[in-house]
Recover the amino acids of this structure.
């Protein structure tokens, strides 16, 4: 499948106003693509579109619609010569998925099937999907490579694995389809401009936005969920990866979609672990701000350690993370201190 010789290929970015989606729009623009943003604004705001315009020096068309709206998708594919779809739009709170599994299966699985059907009918053969390390479940060995067993422990993780299965089956049925699932480990950080960042609605589930909101005075203190894990300092270890490294990983994946076919999955991580206390101490060092915390009970479902083996993405996508934990936390702080209430 050859890349058309059009100057700036149009790619549809579902969830393009979200955290990873918006940062990926910056990387796409810088790589010469034209992102067409498709977002229902359920967990983002139109203000993000303004920030994108400031960073990129141009506006991207925004279609405010549901991924599950077949008619809206048909119209979009009629209006734009879409070369590929990057599918970020999904619900992603693990705890919420346990409480409301059907909402997760409807949004993340059924709506993705509608998207893939409309893509097929429109002759769009290239898909990059935002998957997650939660498809692996509890680590059986470390670091985790793409052959690790898939045993999600929550409906969110299952919903990601189910979409991967749909992509495998669709590529099996249509041999010139090209689908890549990117399994993120722990996305953190913000664009260097400080104009984009992790902007969760409500109380953050994730560590880094909770740390930055505590540092900026939005939260009283951080609760560290257990310091009795089997790790050097007793707190949980994760593979944090800069959101701009992730964004660039999607551009690398798109490049592949013009020269290969079938279904492929890649881990996007650094291969390096950091504990909760590593994050807190590094953040305090780079920001000069104290992060008061107390040790709380373990959070159900948490594991001690999870770290990616990033070797396959390096070999096949020529991608590897280049930003370290200090950079991740400095950029997160730059964003949060500019926008204490988010945008
Ligand atoms: C990191 C570490 C916590 C908050 C989740 C999802 C995963 C993916 C990334 C979507 C752990 C500790 C956290 C806090 C804490 N999301 N922690 N206090 O759980 O590794 O992964 O986000 O794809 O699907 O599972 O990330 O940031 O929630 O936790 O002590 O207030 O920080 O125990 O050790 P996690 P996290």
């Amino acid at each position: 499948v050859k890349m058309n010789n059009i100057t700036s290929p149009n790619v549809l970015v579902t969830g393009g106003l979200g955290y990873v989606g918006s940062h990926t729009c910056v990387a796409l623009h810088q790589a010469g693509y034209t992102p067409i943003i498709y977002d229902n604004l359920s967990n983002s705001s139109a203000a993000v579109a303004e920030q994108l315009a400031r960073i990129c020096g141009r506006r991207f068309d925004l279609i405010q619609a549901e991924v599950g709206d077949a008619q809206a998708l048909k119209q979009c594919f009629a209006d734009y010569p879409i070369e590929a779809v990057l599918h970020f739009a999904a619900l992603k709170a693990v705890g919420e998925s346990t409480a409301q599994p059907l909402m997760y299966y409807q949004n993340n699985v059924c709506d993705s099937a509608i998207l893939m059907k409309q893509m097929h009918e429109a002759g769009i053969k290239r898909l990059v999907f935002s998957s997650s390390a939660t498809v692996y479940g509890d680590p059986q060995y470390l670091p985790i490579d793409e052959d690790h067993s898939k045993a999600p422990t929550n409906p969110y993780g299952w919903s990601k694995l189910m979409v991967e299965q749909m992509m495998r089956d669709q590529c099996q049925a249509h041999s010139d389809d090209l689908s890549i699932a990117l399994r993120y480990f722990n996305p953190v950080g913000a664009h260097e401009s400080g104009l984009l960042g992790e902007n969760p609605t409500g109380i953050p589930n994730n560590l880094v936005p909770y740390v930055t909101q505590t540092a900026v005075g939005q939260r009283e203190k951080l609760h560290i969920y257990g310091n009795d894990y089997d790790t050097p300092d007793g707190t949980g270890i994760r593979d944090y990866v800069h959101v701009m490294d992730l964004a660039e990983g999607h551009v690398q994946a798109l490049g592949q979609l013009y020269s290969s076919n079938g279904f492929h999955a890649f881990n996007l991580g650094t291969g390096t672990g950091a504990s909760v206390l590593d994050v807190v101490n590094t953040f305090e060092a780079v920001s000069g701000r104290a992060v008061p915390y107390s040790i709380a009970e373990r959070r159900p479902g948490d594991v001690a350690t999870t770290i990616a083996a990033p070797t396959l993405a390096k070999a096949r996508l020529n991608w590897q993370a280049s930003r370290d934990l200090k950079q991740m936390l400095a950029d997160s702080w730059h964003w949060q201190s500019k926008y204490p209430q988010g945008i």
In short: Residues 119 and 125 are 7 Å apart (CA to CA). The longest strand covers residues 126-132. The pocket of WQD is lined by residues 92, 94, 132, 134, 184, 186, 205-207, 210, 222-225, 236, 238, 276, 299, 302 (CB under 6 Å).
